[in-house]
Amino acid sequence: MLVVDSVSVNYGAIRAVQEVSLRVEEGEIVALLGPNGAGKSTLISAIAGLVPIVSGHVTLGDTEITRQTPEDITRLGVSVTPEGRRVFDDLTVGENLRLGAAIRKDKNGVAKDLEEYLEMFPVLRERYDTAAHTLSGGEQQQLAIARSLMSRPKLLMLDEPSLGLAPQLVQQIFALVGTLRDRGLTLLVVEQNAHQALAFSDRAYVLNTGRLQYSGTAAELRESDQLTEHYLGIGTGPPMRTESANGTP
Amino acid sequence: MNTLLRSLVGGIGLALIPVLIGVFVMLIGETAQVRTVNFFLINLIIVLGLQVSMGNSNIANLGHVTFMGIAAYGAAVLSIPITIKATILPDAPFGVSEVQLGVVQAALIGIAVSTCFAFLTGLVLSRQSGIAATIITLALIVVVHTVFINWNELTRGARALYGIPIKTNIVWLMAVAAIAVVIARLFRDSTLGVQLRASGEDFLAAAAMGVNVTRLRLVAWVLSGAIISVAGVMYTFLIGSISPKSFYFETVFLTLAMLILGGMRSVSGAVIGAVVVTIGFEFMRYLESAPEIVGFQLPQIFGLTGFFLGTIIVLSMALRPDGIVGNDELDEMLQNRVRDRQG
Amino acid sequence: MEYFLQQALNALSTGGEYALLALGLAIVFSVMGLVNFAHGETITIGGYTMYALFIFAAPTNAWVLLPIGILAAVAASLTFERVAFRPVRNAPATTGLLTAFGVSIIIKNFFVTVVATRPKAVPTPDWLNTQIPLGPVSIQTLQVLEAVVTFGALIILLAVLRGTTLGLSMRAAAKDFNTVRLMGIRANQVVAAAFFISGLLAGLAAIFIIARRGSVDPFMGFIPVLKAFVAAVIGGFGSLPGAVIGGFVLGITEVVFQVILPDKIAGYRDAFVFTLVGMLLIMRPQGIYGQKLELGEKGG
User: Fold this and answer.
1) Which range is least confidently modeled, A88-97, A237-246, B133-142, B311-320?
2) pTM of this prediction?
3) Could C168 and A89 be called an inter-chain contact, meaning their C-beta atoms sit closer than 8 Å?
4) Fewest Cβ atoms closer than 10 Å to its Cβ: which of A39, B103, B176, B191?
């Protein structure tokens, strides 16, 4: 469904993403892993159209979305839950959700989805008429995800959904991710919490300092101790040595 | 030291532009052209003053012309012959109607008073930022303008205050403009100027490095006020008759436009902006075949000429928002190009 | 006593007009961070359109004239956005400010060149100036109308901002434009909506300004936009409730000084008002309703 082909992105004067290629097939959950500053969020922003792509191509199905605006990309069925949640602070929960569904024309469908997500996230029903900034971090994350879902996307990109959340909440979020996949949603999840991410995803890519270091099935990554040690869970550690296809140094 | 020397040389080079224009017009121009260049040089001095404050501290300043007005009225009131004062300023306060000073003395006092006022207002303003600061400069010019219009005993209110001796000529203006260019340039490249510009870019970082931003802004504001005061004094002794209208929004917008068009981050920008706008005006006026302006005021900015001024501003903001010259001085750009070619 | 009541009414009426003007500025600033100095010219265009209609389509019913004037103001506002402001949409605030200023010079000079520098009289229907006695005081029909319209406009604006998706988008865009775009909502539509509303408010203001002055001239927009700017900043620039509050504070302050200054120094009214404004901003730069911005936040 989503094909990222040799994409490079700048962040100011720095080349934040260097010739990264990845793909996400329909119905998959793909994890994008790597330490802090690896370029994962920049790549997501670029796919979403918020940041210009210097070279390479991004395709969604048959459509090239490399140079399209964020509005158009969302309308093509890609939804992003941005890093840091980015809920609209001054608006109520209900108003946030309403904006999530802004591009949809089917009133009944929207009402149905709204009801469904309020079931899925009871706290949102509770706080429906309160301003979003009064919600806790975890609640805001739920709101952000629900808001992204309201547009009925084909592909949902979650950028660091577990950031700053208590472990129990993190569990909840990841359980949710599985549920979503069962409903036919395709997901690309950026995560620093590699262990958890590998537990629910099908495949994963590992980014470091802007480059793709490794790609494989979640099972492969889980089993490779060296990979787990070298690429995941170690923040900005010592410089990476050369990697080979299966990750042995 | 080396930087300052380079800056001095650059400033002198830049100062040649107004000087050459002046010399050119002196040699071959008629009265009308000389008058135009006189006004150009006065506007240039104002724009240079504005560049010192706005170009370095990154706050939109709408009140700079205040200091022009205060200095102008100060010098005027002190130098008008006593006989004339008896008619037009009979009830002047501070014993002004008894006094008639020489032009130089009156000028110096006018500049001093205005600069003091700049210092006092600067104490308050240097602590402000952003839009609030801009509105405060706006409040400044409105308050002072209101005082000019209402203090009939001292300023003759909205009517023209005439009888001021005419002493300014193009040679004086050229000299003052050249000096102002060099001063503005030296300030920009001095430690003070550099620190001030850095703080405009990133206030937090500069403050974290121990830069006393408030004090820097005060210095820039006072220097700016002083330069503009000089312009006011030269103006007053050029036309011999002033009224509050010359020190209000028309002049603010004209000089602001000149600076923005040229590029407010550099002294070259100030100079080029003043040149381009003045040429543009004259060209427009030539097209319009308007009758020669015999009046007392600075060039009016309304009419077909103004129409094109506005268009130029809009176009240049869309196409070249940093101004014609941009962020670097002309001589700096030249140096870079030479270096690139050698390297 | 009656005098004070009368002046209180004047103060509210003036405040209401400034609130209307300040709102027009605040709405554009809140969505795009643009200080729209050309707002005054939107008013001027509305004014001249009504004047032109009156001249060329003489006895025209006022009720036809006014909506067309408002429409002209809206069209002008949208045109300014499309032609002049869109190219500088993401530029720093100073660039936008100067573009707006350039537009305002163009329009002023357009009317100077094409019409005249001198004011043109616009006769207003007599009934607007009749006084309605209200107990011990009397109020002009014009003032009543202005109050009703301003109030009505505010109610409608609130309804739009709370109830419509576009209104919600505008409120959201004030803090986080990019995320609004991620919802699939077109940036151009949100911006156009802001300018539409701004133009509408300007058109309404134009009607009342002309009714009061009885004439149009190319520079008639200057003082209104100045007042609007000051009022909006007093209230907290970019905040919509702030604009309304600021408008009333400015209007009331003006009338208060008008009343209490002895005749000899009555001319200094503006000096007093602006000194007060300056002092308010020195003590509270974020305005009455504004939030103190941390260094580095948008708007600082």
Assistant:
1) A237-246
2) 0.84
3) no
4) B191
Domain encompassing residue B91? 2-245
DSSP string, chain A: -EEEEEEEEEETTEEEEEEEEEEE-TT-EEEEE-STTSSHHHHHHHHHTSS-EEEEEEEETTEE-TT--HHHHHHTTEEEE-TT----TTSBHHHHHHHHTTT---HHHHHHHHHHHHHH-HHHHHTTTSBGGGS-HHHHHHHHHHHHHTT--SEEEEESTTTT--HHHHHHHHHHHHHHHHTT-EEEEE-S-HHHHHHH-SEEEEEETTEEEEEEEHHHHHH-HHHHHHHSS-TT-SPP----TT---
pLDDT tens across A177-208, in order?
778 888 888 999 998 778 778 888 899 998 88
Residue B294: which residues within 8 A CB-CB, separation 6 or more?
A: none
Tokens coding C279: 């002092």
Which residues of chain B have a CB within 8 Å of the CB of C92?
321
Q: Give me the number of domains chain B comprises.
A: 1
B154 located within any domain: yes
In terms of CA atoms, which chain B residue is nearest residue C230?
B135
Q: Counting beta carbons within 10 angstroms of the beta carbon of residue A12, is it exposed (0 to 12), middle (13 to 18) or buried (19 or more)?
A: exposed
Best mutation site among C183, C239, C291, C298 for testing chain A: the one with the most A CBs within 10 Å? C183
Alpha-carbon radius of gyration of chain C: 19
| B292 inside domain | no
Among B178, B132, B128, B206, smallest CA distance to B18 is for B178
From A90, A98, A103, residue closest to C184, measured CB to CB: A103
Question: Considering only CB atoms, which chain A residues are within 8 Å of C183?
Answer: 74, 99-100, 102-103, 147, 151
What pLDDT is attached to residue B294? 45
Better-scored residue on pLDDT, C122 or A21: A21
Which among B132, B147, B311 has CB closest to C281?
A: B132
Averaged pLDDT of chain B: 84
Contact: C102, B150; criterion CB under 8 Å: no
CB proximity list for B6: less than 8 A, separation 6 or greater: B189, B331
Give contacts of B 152-191 with C, CB under 8 A: none
Q: Are C112 and B306 in contact (CB under 8 A)?
A: yes
Return the partners of chain A (3 or more C-beta pairs < 8 Å): C
pLDDT-derived band at A249 (thresholds 50, 70, 90) equals very low
Choose the closest CB to C99 out of B147, B203, B314: B314
Among all residues of chain B, which has the CA nearest to that of C104?
Answer: B310
> CB distance from B60 to chain C under 8 Å?
yes
Q: What token pair was written down for C230? A: 């000051």
Would you say residue B313 lies in a domain? no
Q: Between chain A and chain C, how many beta carbons pairs sit less than 8 Å apart? A: 60
Which fold would CATH assign to domain A2-90+150-231? Rossmann fold (3.40.50)
| Structural domain includes residue B281 | no
Give Cβ neighbours of residue A116 (< 8 Å, ≥ 6 apart): none
Q: Is B204 on the interface with C (CB under 8 A)?
A: yes
Domain ranges of chain A: 2-90+150-231
ipTM for the predicted complex comes to 0.84
Residues in C 174-233 with any Cβ partner in B closer than 8 A: 218, 222, 226, 229-230, 233
Identify which of B73, B17, B76, B74 has the alpha carbon closest to the alpha carbon of residue B47: B17
Contact (CB<8Å) C183/A82: no
**Do residue C88 and residue B304 have CB atoms under 8 angstroms apart?**
no
Sketch the domain layout of chain C as residue ranges: 15-221
Give the closest of C84, C269, C281 to B314, CB-based: C84
Give the angle A28-A31-A33 at the CA atoms, nearest 5°: 165
**Nearest-by-Cβ selection for C87 from B253, B260, B318:** B318
